[in-house]
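=== Structure Prediction Worksheet ===
Name of assembly: unnamed complex
Input type: mixed (protein and possibly other molecules)
Chain count: two
Listed entries:
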Amino acid sequence: MWESELQNWENILPAFKAYRDEFRNIYHLRNIGSVLHWDMEIGIPSDGLSERGDQLSFLSGLAHKSFIGDPFRSLAEKARDENTRTDLPGKSLRERELNLLFKDLDRSSCLPISWVEEFSKVTSQAHSIWVDARKKNDASSFLPILQKIVDLVFQKADYFGFSTEAYDALLDEYEPEAKAADLEVLFADLRKSLVPLIAKAKDATFPFQGNFPIDSQIPFNTSLPVLLGLPKSGFRLDSSAHPFSTSLGSFDKRITTRYEESDPLSSVYSVLHETGHALYEAGISLLAGGPSPLKDSVSLGVHESQSRLWENQVGRSKEFWEGIYPLFLKNLGISEASLPFSKLYSFVNKSKPSLIRVEADQITYNLHVILRFQIERAIFKKELVLKDLSGAWKDGMKSLLGVDVPDDSKGFLQDVHWSGGAFGYFPTYSLGNIYAAQLYSAFLKQNPKFPDELKNRETSSLLDWLRKHVHSKGRSLEAKELIRQATGEEPNSKYLVEYLDSKIKEQEVI
Amino acid sequence: MWESELQNWENILPAFKAYRDEFRNIYHLRNIGSVLHWDMEIGIPSDGLSERGDQLSFLSGLAHKSFIGDPFRSLAEKARDENTRTDLPGKSLRERELNLLFKDLDRSSCLPISWVEEFSKVTSQAHSIWVDARKKNDASSFLPILQKIVDLVFQKADYFGFSTEAYDALLDEYEPEAKAADLEVLFADLRKSLVPLIAKAKDATFPFQGNFPIDSQIPFNTSLPVLLGLPKSGFRLDSSAHPFSTSLGSFDKRITTRYEESDPLSSVYSVLHETGHALYEAGISLLAGGPSPLKDSVSLGVHESQSRLWENQVGRSKEFWEGIYPLFLKNLGISEASLPFSKLYSFVNKSKPSLIRVEADQITYNLHVILRFQIERAIFKKELVLKDLSGAWKDGMKSLLGVDVPDDSKGFLQDVHWSGGAFGYFPTYSLGNIYAAQLYSAFLKQNPKFPDELKNRETSSLLDWLRKHVHSKGRSLEAKELIRQATGEEPNSKYLVEYLDSKIKEQEVI
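=== Predicted Assembly ===
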């Protein structure tokens, strides 16, 4: 609907066209930066790393200056002025676009250079201190610099501004308009249901034997994005230390995975996850008109919902595996006898409370996130001081997951995020899971035959539905409103709990 | 010697430092452009090609404006002014650097935008017309647009300026300070010796049977740049439609090759050639001080000499193959019985006059180049009109190589260069061969034991010699002077003829 309107604006509104032309240049600079990053991750010669850092900092400086400086701001102001003086179709969407743009501009320019430099200095020091502290299990060496980071992040919240609590300003960077008080309610519901659920969860034995050379894993992994609907001519799959998805242009999406010779499923789930992200970005790029602030993802939570939905709701379903099981075995040269379907399927949906978030299964994962949310919020409500962090972590893990944390390395030192100053980011992981389950449930109600289609490796009805209800919205709606319109309900954890519960019940039967 | 001087200039001369700092930004922009190009060649998703074109044109526009505009020009003028007023060490090299810079600046800014746009439009039209004309063997459809290109190139020569003939201005773009009249003498000598030589040249039969999967070829190819002295941590080898070498930063060199399943030598010679280019760039980067106009290759002829020397003088020598023969066989799973050394070695040095330059052997290759030089020069002396091009080509091929050209597709339509307006470029190929032979001969006189070292896969004495006599000179000397200082003689074709003659004699013995 709004796509065709978008297309015509530029021809009828000269100031709007001028601002959008300049926006395209900034878009190019950002994509060029993504090329440099992508190349760095997929295997830059190590001698080139230092200069690549210089190239990236030069380029991001250029992009930043082009964005916050003139002539771009003046052009945007003229476009806003022009829009208020017209009554042409699309007026309210243009208003939304320009409001988002000025919010982005304010965000990008409200931090003083001195703060940015100090933050960059402290977090880069903190990274190596954190690596060391985790290795040596020495929390005391990390806490002083973490305190500096927390102080700087408090300052950032002040620069950003907030009405209720500082943490809202931090959340807003990743999940615009999200409020800590709302998340508290959402996560409390989830927690109440999940804690009794994980007591019933089932572990499964590792079903693979021997090694599977990476070359033998590549063809199957490369077929997955195509199976999910990413055009063959629109992506590249590479390998990197940490799997990621990135956009080097409107129709150029890159995915990476990490191969393990002993476990050929590890790469598969990375590919499914990253393909979900790439499909979202690709769906947005399909919208009419050139680059604009509206043609972007609405929030990290929604972004994560797209990866989680394909990874979990689809990728851990019986029907999906019924569809790909023969191909999977064939590509790896495994016989059905040595890897029976039930054994594989159990393993894919196994669950066991554990200490490390990044290794957690789909059922226990959210409790890891809830713990971090509680702790972060307490810090920024000044209810928790850093010297009590270790104890709070251990208590939280015990009450949420029932596990005893033996030391801080397996406790609050495990994640990289805080050493980089990323507070407010963790909640988007569980928001993604909540949104994914809610979206998938709404989709299934309208498309009850989808599981049968999956058995035949048909996924297009789901992609079409997601394009219509999620991708095509871009940033025209806030996340909450997007979920509401797509599912007919406020975001809530009911569907995630139902989904996870069904997984546990299924495992009991096997 | 001049390295350490370079290092200190920036600290003692503030204006020089300021100009160099700005030069570094332009250097970053150029390297970033190389990243985009490299990625495009090694396998960008095809849907991304069009936007990549936009990104590249935006970025090269940015680099161009930063280079020819203020503040860079003012900073460079201040640095020049400062240098004339001092008597500090390195003065003459700084003067050379700034002279080169102003020559580059004048070159970049002397062409009117209208000319640049017209040239770009005409050559991009010409490319597809040329593709079609070659396919259909229809010279008449190509000649009109070629005439437009020639007219535009005449204009370019006028904008660049020249004292004797227009062709000198064209040559100067690729081989600075080279004069057509000098090349005429150099190439006439070469021609006189080569024509009788090729009559004695020997062909050889294709020695491989069956197919060699690309995966099985990669490890051996990847070991070659390391064998030649490129640090493992400083390069990446990928595959692309056309092999090339590019520099994405001072210590980040990229090489590509093209694999043929039926011919495992094809990729090997591309790798040796491109490694030669990469070693030259890497050698220049090793010089003290940051990026500067002096830290660049002196000419395409010298660049080509570095690739040819490793590809031919080294890579087609008996001792080199004695060193790598067992590894080569082992990596491909070929037995010694099915590929005897003498058969392989004959094939590597085979020679037979043929129609297509890019498929020509080392002995006949230069006659292809000489023909193009004669024709290009005649066009720009207005001694040859385009309607006589086809006939001139056929006559030239007959008298130089003794072959009959059956049609224009295998004649003057075979090369892409003219459709892109690249006149004056071809001679650098033979200059490269001439320089390579002369340099290698001088090196061998000082290092007579090198062939024995090669047998043991030892190549460092050659790389050290090239670094000292070629790489470390950067652009501080013109090509002619560089060769003179390195070899004690004016550039001449005697050593190339001697080398090729020895190859033919060797084949007679086998």
